[in-house]
Amino acid sequence: MIDFKYKEIDQEGLEVLEAINVAKNFNHWMYKTIVPHCSGNILEIGSGIGNISTHFLENGHDIVLSDIRENYRSILADKFMAYQPQIIDLDMVHTDFDNHYRHLLNTFDTVYALNVVEHIEDDRGAIRNAKKLLRKGGKMIILVPAFNTLYNGIDRSLEHYRRYTIKTLTNIMSPELSIIHQRYFNFLGILGWVVMGGVFKRSDIKSNQTRVYEMLLPVAKGLDSIFKHFFGLSVIVVGVKE
Asked: In the CATH scheme, what architecture does the domain 11-240 have?
């Protein structure tokens, strides 16, 4: 049984986010992959240091940023000072969620969480609470790591409770939402994950690795057009609140 203790400052996670921040084109690709499902008043759950947020803000979306960690919220406030977005403290499994966040209930047209739900032990509770933040007809977009067979030291270092498949993620979301879209994302990333975390037993991601991946991004996009329904390092599911 995996048991991770909450850390107010997640140094390993921060270092990985900073390494991924170097991969500007990859982050833009992820943004372009989910943005067709985003509209209206948007909430980003777990904004981190704003690797994806920046694309929403630069393109004029009405978006609220959030994170459970104060240091990330401070980074977001400094980084996006010119945009002055609303940045909130949001705990998706707060013990009194309905009362604590009653001002946010039934507020958003879109809620998305990218690489967040795998960090939450009670993932079903997090999805259930995320639904409460949506207006009727609103969309929820969840992206998480795919396939438990790929779980390795990098996952442990980042405090991932699990990885998912289209089926397991859909099973968590479908009791709350009508599923309208599902796919795998980043097939080529599997190779790097297996080599670095499996073969070389690394527990981190460095910026030099993400720079190499940037060079291979055209190949990655081509492979995804073939494998997006079968394999990928991540899985994306989109649901609608009826």
From this structure: 3-Layer(aba) Sandwich (3.40)
Q: Which of 80, 93, 111 is nearest to 6 (CA)?
A: 93
**Which residues share a beta bridge with 99?**
none
Is residue 27 within 8 A of residue 55, CB to CB? The reply is yes
Write down the residue that tokens 């996952």 correspond to: 155
Distances (CA, A) of 70 to 12, 23, 209, 223: 16, 24, 28, 38
The per-residue pLDDT for range 113-169, each reduced to its tens digit, is 999 999 999 999 999 999 999 999 999 999 999 999 999 999 999 999 999 999 999
Q: Angle 217-227/24-34 helices, nearest 10 degrees?
A: 30
pTM of the entire structure?
Answer: 0.97
Residue 232 is classified by DSSP as -
